[in-house]
Specification:
Strand order of the largest sheet: 5-4-1-2-3-6
Distance between the termini: 116 Å
Shape: elongated
Order of helices and strands: HHHHHHHHEEEHEHEHE
Largest sheet: 6 strands, mixed
Number of helices: 11
Length: about 325
């Protein structure tokens, strides 16, 4: 009985092996034929849902052999179809930044409503509170989405409208310095510039080595006398946060009922006109400018005007039309 079982087993193995070889030859032929047919078809084929279902049914249990057999679509695509049909769709990670928390968004809108700050200032305040999860664009988009202006100038009128409204009586002032050759070597001389917004006329003080408080007050009084003689009224004077604009200097204007306004930190555009004039003076040689310049200030002999000089510049020309 045992010997008969061994003979039967051996016979079945021979039949199975011959069947496997026959199937392998058939599969090889079908693969070659499929490659020839596939080479004559377009690179991309559009399958119907019924055709997809047929491929899924036959490919479900192929395992790694699918990598060699699939030619119409990529093997990973067929595997994805199988997962979707089985209800095991792979979870895709969400793209983009997570939505800002409701309490943070509410705080941003409250700051914008109560203070009128722009998105940069609001972001700075959030950083002070330890809120690091929002960016500049996040704050900006929240303000836009809720109907707020993103800049600090909210309410009636814009900054440009404010300038046009007060141009006839508004001046801006700024310092610039230049290195000169003196008997003791290179030294910095300082000049204070006042610019009238409407006419672009410029009042420039004498150069000095030391712009101390006494010198500043003297230049303020000279400037006020100049505006009165030239009939260019000054009701508003804009200046930056330079420490040389001391209280006694500003008081000289307050006595004449001239309002002095200090620009916000990191807001150079609020004194853009005089900043542009100073930039022109720095970048362009004096010889190319039509500005009237005292010859003593051109340091060909290494000298500069004394601090008590009465020289002033009254600039016209290209700046009158800028």
């Amino acid at each position: 009985m045992a010997s008969f079982r061994n003979v039967y087993t051996s016979l079945m193995l021979v039949i199975a092996k011959s069947t496997d070889k026959e199937l392998a030859r058939q599969v090889s032929y079908l693969k070659a034929e499929n490659q020839i047919l596939r080479s004559r078809l377009p690179k991309r084929l559009s399958l119907t849902q019924r055709e997809k279902n047929r491929l899924i049914r036959f490919a479900r249990n192929l395992g790694s052999a699918l990598n060699e057999l699939a030619t119409i679509v990529h093997p990973s695509t067929i595997r994805r179809w199988i997962r979707e049909e089985s209800g095991k769709k792979k979870q895709q990670p969400k793209k983009g930044r997570p939505r800002t928390a409701a309490d943070i968004e509410k705080l941003i809108l409250k700051l914008a409503k109560d203070t009128g700050w722009g998105y940069t200032r609001i972001l700075g305040e959030l950083k002070k509170l330890g809120i690091e999860s929002v960016t500049r664009n996040t704050v900006k988009n929240i303000l836009k989405r809720n109907g707020y202006e993103t800049g600090p100038e909210r309410g009636p009128g814009t900054w440009d409208e404010f300038l046009k409204r007060h141009a006839a009586t508004m001046w801006q002032c700024d310092f610039f310095s230049k290195k000169i050759v003196s008997k003791t070597g290179l030294r910095d001389v300082f000049v204070l510039v006042f610019l009238h917004i409407e006419t672009r006329r410029v009042f420039i003080t004498p150069a000095t080595y030391k712009p101390d408080q006494e010198w500043m007050i003297e230049q303020a009084e000279e400037f006020i006398r100049h505006t009165e003689s030239e009939k260019l009224p000054c009701k508003i004077l804009m200046h930056d946060n330079d420490g040389k604009y001391s209280q006694p200097f500003l008081a000289a204007f307050t006595i004449r009922k001239i309002e002095t306004r200090r620009t916000a930190i990191r807001s150079p555009n609020t004194v853009a006109f005089v900043e542009r004039f100073v930039q022109t003076i720095r970048q362009e040689p004096f010889a190319k400018s039509t500005t009237t310049i005292p010859t003593q200030f051109i340091h060909r002999r290494g000298t500069c005007p004394p601090a008590n000089s009465t020289m002033k510049w009254h600039a016209t020309g290209p700046f009158a039309n800028n």
